[in-house]
Amino acid sequence: MALLEFNTVAKNFGGLQVIRNFSFKVDPGEIVSIIGPNGAGKTTVFNLITGIYTPDHGDIRFEGKSIVGLEPHQICERGIARTFQLLRLFLNMSVRENVMAAAFPRTRSNLADIILHLPGFRREEAHVRALAEEKLGFFGERLAGTYDQPVYSLPYANRRQVEIARAMATGPKLLLLDEPAAGMNPNETHEITHLIGELRARGGYTILLIEHDMQVVAGISDRVIALDYGEKIAEGAYQEVATNERVIEAYLGRQHKATGSRGAGERG
Amino acid sequence: MTTLQQRLSPSTWNAIPLVWRYTIVLGAMALVPLFTDNEYFIRILGNVCMFAALAVALNVIVGYAGLLDLGFVAFFGLGAYGYGLLASPQLGLHLPSVLALIAVAVLSVLFGLLLGSPSLRLLGDYLAIVTLGFGLIFVQLTNTLDKIEIPGREDTFNLTGGANGLLKIDPLGLFGYTLTTVTQYFYVFLAWLIVVLIVVYRLNQSRLGRAWRSMGEDALAAEVMGMPTRRLKLLAFAVGSAIAGVTGGLFAAWQGSAFPQNFGSDVLINLYAMMVLGGIGNLAGAVLGASVLSIVPEILRNPELIRMVFYLGLVIGLLLLRPRRNGLLLLAGVFVFGLAVRLIVQAVAPDLVAAPNIEVASESVSTAFERFGQQFGILTQQWILLLKEPQLAGNLAFVALIPAVLGLARLKPGPLKLAATAPVLYLLAFVWEARLTAEPAVTRLLLVGMLLVLMMIFRPNGLLGRRKIEIV
Fold it and tell me: Cβ contact (<8 Å) for B225 and A104?
């Protein structure tokens, strides 16, 4: 059974069709990348999965059950967590607190437990603390020693990692990463590529990825889906998709008719 | 070797464990009634505790959860009126205090949820308008619910007492004792503040507090990370309102009455000022802000104290000037300039000069502090020029002061500016003496306003605030 399934999903904003008749599957343990030029609707796909938008048509299923109409926090509880293209961290909270806050759906203490510091609360608090350390520990040296600093004091690349740690703390099965390598230098890009592989290998997460950097996509994807104007134009292994004519067209623009026929002739 | 300066620096204070810091401050407050039986003084401290509890509760809603609630003060009022109705001759009910306070807390939670529920989809400015409406409606209702017409009856029913308020509210009765003295109520409010601090501190250091703060920072991200933001908003409203309600009940019992104007917009603004001054989202800051804004206006009721605050501010301001040599030069310059002016005027036109007008040690003056203030005033009047028509002279000097300050601001930094500053400062002191110390009621608010402006210029995040808003 597929972990995540899109069945003929469509989404319009006013008259604009952002997603058209889009179907795809993500199987457990896969790393799937969604690529496409700016405005192709990639982030909208993430917003549909996480319940920020509801689809106008079609069904979204997670572990076989429809998640359409659920509130975002309920979808998160089911086991889907995401990061944001333009980082949405809790800037005035410490690194540790950012991660601990995301353990909310896994914890149950109520007002009385907390105000009276009942044993159940203390146990849970210790557990959440350990959980945060564990998730942050995943990133090794880069975040070591910054746990008690406010997030606004961290450099950009480290913030990206805190955001991934925060998503991990919600206890997801599926991780949605929205351009994890955006704004990173080649070194950091290499690091994040390696890290995404580790997330699957050591963390056991299934990963759906939006990425512009083809190096990252080529390095780790089991499967690549190309979107253009909200439509799936190609799907398959990276090599297949990267050489697909429609994909190249979408990125580089349609060739003129005259040159187009010549190009076809040359290829023939 | 540590110098005294190092030992007194904030880092030393911050090194003390949090619980002990609170124990020291609140314990020191608790000891005050042992050293003085000045009721006025203890009443101010009681007010500090009350406003601190309110500011801490407001912090839960605004500082943590990020909900701009302008109806907050209505819950304070709801608690006071609720307690007043349950324990006064108004309805003939005289519930035991503890029972009445519990009922008031429940009532406040219910109204908190009621106010919260239509606000779930609103954020920021829009939420502010809805809650502001709630606050205004509350004051209006307390004013008008004294003549309720009941169908089938001739007379009208009086619920809230209208503008005359609720009177003869029962004092608190705890464990068989009836509390009547100011000191007793001070201890009640201190204990209540401690309870509120512990509850809010513990909530803040839990999944709920983290979720509230996450929501305050970025509601969408919090929701997507699995935090049910609607329920969290309602919970924040409920907790803040419950604390405000019980505080209101205690206030009604202390005052023995409740009036609509106790819960108006000025109280709301004062509470926000306390919270912002201390630093939004900071508990100790809320207590500090409440202390500053409860105590300072009281200190400034006394004209001698106003005078001292002014000169103290002037001297400290000059000493903070860098390089320090300039500050000292200016200080000496102002002093000498003042003496020179006085001697010259006395020599040239002795008819214009008035005699010092502070009487030595009148009977109203009791404490050593106030005697010192008076001595200081007498000394000042030896220095500053006192004219026979202080009002006229003060007004003229005021008019002269404005272009002088503007002109000074245009001068480039240098010896000329330094030299020109001394007479301007003297002119300022002259205006202060001639006009403003004469009307402490006005000057008091001027000073408080200036204090707020200055504090926010030097510490935009509030006294203890550490927030940083990143502009992306």
Answer: yes
Nearest to A114 among B208, B222, B472 (CB): B208
Taking contacts as CB-CB distances below 8 angstroms, the residues of chain B near A88 are 218, 220-221
The CATH number given to whatever domain includes residue A73 is: 3.40.50.300
Q: Does position B360 have pLDDT exceeding 60, yes or no?
A: no
* Residue B115 near residue B290 (C-beta atoms within 8 A): no
Residue B226: its chain A contacts at CB < 8 A? 73, 76-77, 81, 102, 104-105, 170
Domain termination residue (choose one: A109, A133, A168): A168
**pLDDT the model gives residue B364:** 55
A126 and A230 co-located in one domain? no
CATH class of B7-296: mainly alpha
Test A166 with B211 for CB contact under 8 angstroms: no
Question: Dihedral of CA B433/B439/B441/B445: which sign?
Answer: negative
Minimal CA separation from A2 to chain B, in Å: 22
Domain annotation covers residue A128: yes
Is residue A244 classed exposed, middle or buried when 0-12, 13-18 and 19+ CB atoms within 10 A define those classes? middle
CB contact under 8 A, A89 and B206: no
| Number of neighbouring beta carbons within 10 Å of residue B292 | 20
- Classify the complex by whether its ipTM is higher than 0.90, answering yes or no: yes
Residues A132, A62 share a domain: no
Distance from CA of B228 to the nearest CA of A (A): 6
Distance CA A150, CA B466 (A): 10
Model pLDDT, residue A261: 43
pLDDT in tens, B73-94: 999 999 999 999 999 998 988 9
Inter-chain touch B221–A115, beta carbons under 8 Å: no
Helix (H, G, I), strand (E, B) or coil at B189: helix
Q: Do A84 and B208 touch (CB under 8 A)?
A: no
The answer to whether residue B217 neighbours chain A at the CB level (below 8 Å) is: yes
- Quickly state the pLDDT bin for A263 (edges 50, 70, 90): very low
Average pLDDT in chain B: 87
Q: Name the B residues in 230-249 with CB < 8 Å from any A CB.
A: 235, 239
Beta carbons within 8 Å of B372's beta carbon, 6+ residues apart: none
Query: Which chain B residues have a beta carbon less than 8 Å from that of A105?
Result: 226-227
Is the pLDDT higher at B232 or at B315? B232
Provide, as residue numbers in chain A, all residues whose Cβ is less than 8 Å from the Cβ of B120: none
Q: Which H or E element spans position A35?
A: strand A31-35
Last residue of a domain, one of A143, A168, A193: A168
User: Is residue B201 helix, strand or coil?
Assistant: helix
Delimit the domains of chain B by residue range: 7-296, 304-438
Strands B156-157 and B173-174, how do they pair? unpaired
Q: Are residue A209 and residue A240 in the same domain, yes or no?
A: yes
Token output for A136:
């942050």
Domain that holds residue A243: 4-79+172-267
Tokens of A243: 């050489």
Mean pLDDT of B350-357: 79
Judged against a pLDDT cut of 80, whether residue B4 lies above it is answered with: no
**A-chain residue closest to B471, CA distance:** A152
pTM attached to this predicted model? 0.86
Is residue A85 a part of any domain in this protein? no
Q: Are residues A259 and A229 in the same domain?
A: yes
How many structural domains compose chain A?
2
Report the pLDDT averaged over residues A11-22. Answer: 93
pLDDT at B442 over 90: no
